Amino acid sequence: MRVIITRPQGEAAPWLSAMDASGFSGWALPLIDVHATPQAQAVESAWSRLAGFDAVMFVSRNAAKHFFARKSLESPVFTAQSAIKTVAFATGPGSYSTLERMGAEPAFVFAPDLAAGRFDSEALWEVVKDRVVPGYRVLIVRGSTVGAPGGGEGSGRDWFAQQVQSAGGEVEFVVSYERSCPHWDATTRQQAAGASQDGSVWVFSSSEAIRNLQQCCTGTGWGQARAVVTHHRIGAAARAAGFGQVLESKPLLPALLASIESLQ
Questions:
Q1: Distance of CA 247 to the CA centre of its chain
Q2: 223 near 242, Cβ under 8 Å?
């Protein structure tokens, strides 16, 4: 059985390896292109004012990766040795591991239980809500979608920002990367359309990926297609797109594999 991994290029490798090791035929078909924001000065400004924030929330591994790419300060951050006592909020294992690679120490990174498999704003808020008091300042590092209304201001984690503000805290946003729909040639478009009815299993970890698939395969019906998704909101997007069978799974490889195996 073929399993289509739709994560951005550079993020799919572990999932593809797991598919191959489990006897599935993995196909990497990135549905979101990721690149650094052209508004680099805004990121550099955020770095220069980092000490004025109590916490920095990273919405994804790409948010952390591209934010640190503009780091010009030599002093460490999110560590005991740092002169800046700002802490980091990570939404899941991707952003958490990226921060680790950048030198952040576990004591200065707050994230949902990485073994629980629930990585969203709600889970992170449960971890950090007691820290947020009136005047608490949070910088949210996120991405923007090319061509989306208001895309230059970025999108994502608005619910989390609202919780911070309701608790008396202050929120500022900065965009560190851009997302865009991939550009496919006719062959790729034909192969993707064929996978709508050949028994392949699509794995989605983003609602935006589903919207991009619809844009890339205009006119394709998805009534015979099968999908495994990593969040209930992504599941809703898949059903709205017309996918005939949608299974929801925790975003952990053992759970994903179990869901895929159930479709055999």
A1: 19
A2: yes
Q: Which CATH number fits domain 58-180: 3.10.450.50, 3.40.50.10090, 1.10.8.1000, 3.30.1490.20?
A: 3.40.50.10090
Instruction: Give the model's pLDDT for residue 154.
Output: 46
Q: What is the pLDDT at residue 156?
A: 55
Reported as a single tens digit per residue, the pLDDT across 56-94 is 999 999 999 999 999 987 778 999 999 889 999 999 999
Q: Domains of the chain: which residue ranges?
A: 58-180
- State the SS3 of the chain: CEEEECCCCCCCHHHHHHHHHCCCEEEECCCCEEEECCCHHHHHHHHHCHHHCCEEEECCHHHHHHHHCCCCCCCCCCCCCCCCCCEEEECCHHHHHHHHHCCCCHHHEECCCCCCCCCCHHHHHHHHHHHCCCCCEEEEEEEEECCCCCHHHCECCHHHHHHHHHCCCEEEEEEEEEEECCCCCHHHHHHHHHCCCCCCEEEECCHHHHHHHHHHCCCCCCCCCEEEECCHHHHHHHHHHCCCEEEECCCCHHHHHHHHHCCC
Low-confidence ranges of the chain (pLDDT < 70): 148-156
Closest C-alpha among 168, 172, 214 to residue 31 = 214
